[in-house]
Amino acid sequence: MQRKLKAVSQHRHFNSRMELYKWEAHASDDGCSKRPISKASSKTLRRYRKQVQKVRHVLTSDDPTILLREEIRSFSKNEKNSLLKDAGITLDISPEQGLAIKADLTLPWNKIRMIRRWLKGSGICLASERKQRQLAATLVGDNLDAEIAPFTFLTASKNEEVRGAPHAFIPRLQDSVFDLLEDNARCNNLTWHNGRIPETEIWVKVGGDKGGSSFKMNFQIVNTPTPNSVQNTCVFSVFEAGDSTTNLHMALDRYKPQIESLQGMKWREYSMRIFICGDYEFLSKLYGLSGANGRHPCPYCTINQDEMQLSMSMRAGCSQSRSLQSFHDNHQRFLDSGGNAKKVKEFYNCISKPFFDVPLSQVCLPGLHISQGIFLKIFNLLENACHDLDVKMALIHSGHSTLSPSYTNHVLNLQELNRAKAELDTVVQYLTMLVEHQTYLTVAIGQSNSILANFEEHIDECRKEIKAAEKKVQVLEKKVEEGFSSKEGPFVKALDIALQSFGVHRQNYHGGAFVGNHVHKTLEHTNLETLSSYIIAMAQREAPALLQEAEMVAGTFKQTFSLFAKCHFIYNQNYVSEAGCNDLV
Q1: Whole-model pTM?
Q2: Are 351 and 344 in contact (CB under 8 A)?
Q3: CB-count exposure of residue 285 (10 Å: 0-12, 13-18, 19+)
Q4: How confident is the model at residue 215, as a pLDDT?
Q5: CA pair distance 345, 337, nearest whole angstrom
Q6: Degrees (nearest 5) of the Cα angle 395, 398, 399?
Q7: Residue 71 to residues 20, 66, 74, 86: CA-CA distances in angstroms?
Q8: Whole-number Å distance between alpha carbons of 169 and 218
Q9: What's the average model confidence in pLDDT over 525-532?
């Protein structure tokens, strides 16, 4: 048998060589090497093409395109581009790929048209908008709706007015969740994260966030490799208005029965479990609390503002855990007592009913927002310490034993302005909350009611306080503008230079806040070393007399940031172990 196979192979090789010799003789007879190929007729070119294809087939009978690919690879980049252009060869992007580009880059149709025209000039043909829209309509079906809905907006005089605003939403949330689960199952993309999710359950996370001028409500399948990624986030309701309580009711009340029915519903053989996520403000509104200014601001327990200042060892017995039932009971007691907003603290600040009956054990802690808030507070303290060094350095450089009166007044005015702004923000937030709930109660219980009268009286008092506070802020701002800016100090500037050295740029138009990735990057050990070294280097270079104090500031805050970094990296993991919880405590 082996001898026969060898003989066949040799015979085929012999035939291939004979075919090649015949072609070479034929090509020589045609005189193809004597005539310029550019002057050959189309008939001759077709004959040559067939002969070349035949040779490729003789040499590589299994895949004749191998030699063609190797020929093209041997060309230079410019030769390849010229070849494609002269041959009129275009690359086609299918409607599926085009729609994926639009979705992944979140581009509107007018941008897609611009991209299509640009690609066409480079020999790339993007599927037509008509085909992409038809495909999108097929994928979405009839489970998408849009309207101009009546939303409330806060005017400059702190009143609310109702205006029409765009609102797009998915009517059947359950269908979208199940469709996405089917897609992930078909792609083998479902995971139970090594047993962290029970094998009989599918977890779905529902959350909302205000960004720019719009509010977006979305859901994520937790049983995916990267559950928090943008690609796994599906927006099911979006409107162009603020996230006031009234607006949230307008957009989300339709989903109350759907979300509650999803809880415990079956998909295939799995049970569904719903989780709620969002920042603190959103969670407070979702569960009917009056907000951070209330006496009992925590959505998980009834601890009050004074008890929160105590150490953990002294808080025993100070509060009780909240539950869905306690939210409903306390809100009902608040309404039965007359619904006086001034007395809502007596009912644990349950000023309205929860939007969805999802247990508090399935409400995700806003770890990212906690990290951003704590980090910003520590960093502001570091800035204040550096500002004190700047003041002392100015004193050393000026040669005077006391600070100049203008700089002293500037510092005092700045401190007073910050306190006045904080007081104004507190009153404005409280008034906003009152106006929101007044609007909601007007719709819920009607115009003629003693509860609404109490709200109106309290709102008028708040507006008077706001006018007085705004006048005070304006006077102080004028005084501060005439003085010095604390941001101009060498030590404070050194902090920004240090941040920029490892790619962190603060949000200048948002109070110098940090985004989540900035916090994560700054808390890395090497970057904390860099931040400390810049403070010490500034003292060594500009004020050696302050070196010891600068080293103390750098060391203190490096230790503070390092301790916080341990907590940050623990509770921002995909899974917090029991050992991690013990480390946090």
Answers
A1: 0.69
A2: yes
A3: buried
A4: 95
A5: 12
A6: 90
A7: 18, 9, 5, 17
A8: 10
A9: 94
Are 520 and 375 a contacting pair, CB within 8 Å?
Answer: no
Q: Residue for token digits 């939210």?
A: 327
CB half-sphere exposure, 60, CA atoms < 13 A: 11
Closest CA to 221 of 208, 212, 231: 231
How far, in Å, are 89, 116, 122 from residue 92 at the CA level? 10, 11, 12
Q: What angle do CA 234, 230, 115 make, to 5 degrees?
A: 95
Confidence check: pLDDT of 441 > 80: no
- Tell how far CA 189 is from the center of its chain: 22
Distance CA 348, CA 328 (A): 11
Q: What is the C-alpha to C-alpha distance for residues 516 and 372, in angstroms, rounded to an integer?
A: 6
Residue 430 and residue 294: Cα distance in Å, rounded?
9
Q: Phi, psi at residue 359, to the nearest 5°?
A: -55, 150
Beta bridge partners of 109: none
Taking each helix axis from N to C end, the angle separating 547-571 and 525-542, rounded to the nearest 10 degrees, works out to 170
| Angstrom distance (rounded) from CA 452 to CA 339 | 8
The CA distance from 493 to 387, in Å, is 10
Query: No. of H helices and E strands in the chain?
Result: 20, 9
- Phi then psi for residue 62, to 5 deg, are -75, -40
Helix (H, G, I), strand (E, B) or coil at 128: coil
Tens of pLDDT along 390-402? 878 766 664 444 4
d(CA 290, CA 351): 6
